[in-house]
Amino acid sequence: MSTSPATAVPKRVLMTGASGLVGSALSACLVAKGQQVVPLVRRPPRPGSREIEWDPVQGRIDVDAFQGVDAIVNLAGENIAAGRWTASRKKTILESRLQGTRLLAEAMTRFEPRPRAFISASAVGYYGHRGEEQVSEDSPAGCGFLAEVCRRWEQATTAARDAGVRVVLLRLGIVLSARGGALARMLTPAKLGLGGPFGSGCQWMSWIGLTDLVRCVEHLLANDVLSGPVNAVSPHPVTNAEFAATLGKVLGRPAILRMPAMAVNLLFGEMGRELLLASTRAEPSRLLSTGFCFAHPDLTSALRAELSV
Length: 309
Ligand SMILES: NC(=O)c1ccc[n+]([C@@H]2O[C@H](COP(=O)([O-])OP(=O)(O)OC[C@H]3O[C@@H](n4cnc5c(N)ncnc54)[C@H](OP(=O)(O)O)[C@@H]3O)[C@@H](O)[C@H]2O)c1
Fold this sequence. Notes:
Layout: E1 12-16, H1 21-32, E2 36-41, E3 52-55, E4 60-61, E5 71-74, H2 87-108, E6 117-123, E7 134-135, H3 145-155, H4 158-162, E8 166-172, E9 174-176, H5 181-191, E10 204-205, E11 207-209, H6 210-222, E12 228-232, E13 238-239, H7 240-251, H8 261-277, E14 281-282, H9 285-289, H10 299-307
Helix pairs in contact: 1-6, 2-3, 7-10
């Protein structure tokens, strides 16, 4: 992998999950820079908008979707933290990612010219629970439901890669934003002084601020030599106890209420074990080796920026 990447900013970007936390911030940023974003939506397009309809469940996608598209960003997927992982929720979580990703990867091979880049979301959940081990993009997949989802989600891009499209597998860490996701859910208890670590608090959390994530996707869109897995995480992961303490400090509130592992288990079951108690200490080796500079590499700075405090 080169350290001085060739750059070519895409003009027209097709995006799934454009209405979500990451997609809406990314769309706003690309549009502000003069790029066109074409959202793929699972409902009738709004009149006068650029939206194009698709139905990942039925395997339907409008052929116009790929017209003049330089790059595709694939962010769609059922929210993994919206409720306990029953068998049917696990099926939806998995299939909402596999169906759409496979459909895009196969459909784009039928059009000429093909998009130059396919940036497809995945997660550092790929590595599973790894304790103190530092994992990079070269580390093997781990065990557990999320690791299995991520492995198969990434595999679903294969048709695009085989057809010569540059495929980037964006292994996201916990995205920090006041607008949604994990941090927004933590804010109310943290502001009430009811924040604190989960379980031992020794588990590692690999995180990235939404602002840096958007910059990271722009970097990946523009740099033609980058392909394969890319950890989208800050270079300074923290333990869960450090996260709780730093958030408390930034908000000026105590963060000493520990939730024992047993309570996490009882309240959240498998979802709690994999999302709150598992330890993943990922490093952004590929981003750093291609010259990406984080605006907010440390947690205090990222929290202050995302929470505007
Ligand atoms: N946020 C994080 O901390 C984090 C961490 C690791 C990985 N990720 C992954 O990164 C991607 C983007 O994250 P995000 O936080 O922006 O997610 P998000 O806010 O939950 O948005 C995901 C988008 O996916 C679409 N979607 C929802 N349910 C779906 C379903 N059943 N089938 C197909 N599409 C569905 C929706 O867009 P439409 O309604 O417009 O189709 C939704 O806005 C997700 O796939 C997520 O798993 C996120």
